[in-house]
Amino acid sequence: MAARCTGAGGGLMGGDSKFLGLWYISPYLIGLLMFTAFPFAASLYLSFTDYDLFSAPKWVGLDNYKKLFTRDRTFDKSLKVTLIYVFTTVPLKLTFALFIAVVLNYRLRGINLFRTAYYVPSILGGSIAIAVLWRYIFAEAGLVNMLLGLFGVEPVNWFGDPENALFTITLLRCWQFGSAMVIFLAALQSVDKTLYEAAAIDGAGPWAIFRNITLPLITPVIFFNLIMQTVQAFQEFNGPYIITQGGPLKSTYLLPLYIYDEAFKSFDMGYASAIAWVLFTIIMVLTLVAFWSSKKWVYYAGDRRN
Amino acid sequence: MVSLSPTNVAAQVNPEPPTALDIKLRRKSRWNAAIRYSLLIIVGFIMIYPLLWLIGASFKTNAEMFSSPWFWPKEPTVDGYIQGWKTSTPYTFATFFFNSMQIAIPKVIGTAISSTLVAYGFARFEFPGKKIVFAILIATLLLPDVVTRIPQYLLFRELGWLDTYLPLFVPQWFAWEAFFVFMLIQFLRAIPREMEEAARVDGATTLQTLIYVVVPMLLPALVSVCLFQFMWTMNDFLGPLIYISTVEKYPISLALKLSIDATEAFNWNSILAMTVLALTPSLIVFFLAQKSFIEGISSGGVKG
């Protein structure tokens, strides 16, 4: 076994063979090449081809991209819907998660019970069972309309109406704010309490303390949540697929649904790859912008820059 | 509103017997707690009510289903469960449950073993190219699956793995999900190395050190890894949708989708009963191990 070659006495770090570490990470290297690097490169190549699974891929240059940006109405609509979805879901979800975390971050009895209750939807929410539940809750005669009826509100056509359908799916994601909240809560609890006491002695009110002490100290975690949630939101599939099938009038036809249909229903692998690359490029550009801007607003304790 | 107890501050400023200010602050703090509690209870109720309603409604008759928003069934019936267990296919729910386990078990075990080896390699060894590979690992945390999905499908098709469970767990045997590796690396970095060094001095190989010293210490983090992977596998829908085409091999998620399409128009309570059945494995695992979940997500996330 390769592990033997360091033998006793060789330090834990390095030892006699500097390749020992490589031996341990070799599963990752194989997986990276086979299931990430190769597919990544292949999908870029496929996006310049016409490929229907049955005959060999045919190189078509930029045709797929030209079609996407000039002639494809479905793509325009799908891209617009995706952007609206991401830019409403992520801020709503994170604001709500932070708000609840702040309320929870207090010496309250039963805090763990609340934390658990808020976390349950996050752990189940991605499953299609919950998407099925959502169809019942927001149906014409469903739970939400029955509850609204108690207050004399007329029933709302939640996902039959293109105006509301996307919002229903946004709500499904916001309902799963638990994991972002748990991360916020852990960050809030690690803030040095003496800072609060010092500020209170100086006469700062709760809002001023939150704005000037709490918020800057948890910016690394806000940044982390922002990136993770954005990348996730761009890939939303289960919710619209089960709840609305992309309709009505493609008002919930997010890009991942379009990619799935093109690839696995029309078997247009080349065109689907091109859409996937456009989606990937958008995610990458936004992530880079976030990283670049983070120098201006993310504060790392112990870092002198700020 | 921050985590600050005004009484504490007052006590520091003024260690003498309670003054008028003290009493005022204490009263304010009691109000503060009352507001927080009411808010938390209201929001918590809204959060949990859909699930309560789901469980209640699965015992309702179809006639009662949409008659009242109250979750408690008036005439409880298990018809939904009897129908739901039979499903709309020639197979029972047990078949689909068993299929889901055939994906989940190899996936969870493979993830745990490969992620441990790789995290150990990164956290405890120096090797050429380590910085670059680690940077790639971090970058793949952010890489959307959507760009790799189509060529992966083509690869597994080439290998003749379509309509088998292999595409759904073999990548995970190669530590394919960087998130878990990253989580374990973070955990390992926080564990002191003295024990491992002592084992090495006593003549243990690095592999023996890993198995007998590191893994026992890593156990809490490994439990989180297994739990998350299990949940994600149970929730996964797109993977089976792409790769599994025979109904007999469907996991729970696909079977549920199939049943909605077949019976939704009339048999609501059996759909809801199936939905409850589909969530049951995840719910049981969650309540058995909820502490590990929440600790896992906060430690894995915050240090990121």
UniProtKB/TrEMBL annotation, chain B:
It is a multi-pass membrane protein. Gene3D superfamilies: MetI-like. Coiled coil: none annotated. GO terms for cellular component: plasma membrane. Residues 97-289 form the ABC transmembrane type-1 domain. It holds the Pfam family BPD_transp_1. It is found in: Cell membrane. Its main location: membrane. Signal peptide: none annotated. It comes from the Bacteria. One of its GO terms (biological process) is transmembrane transport. SUPFAM superfamilies: MetI-like (SSF161098). The chain crosses the membrane at residues 34-55, 96-120, 132-150, 170-188, 209-232, 266-289. Keywords: Cell membrane, Membrane, Transmembrane, Transmembrane helix, Transport. Belongs to the binding-protein-dependent transport system permease family. This is ABC transporter permease subunit. It comes from Algicella marina.
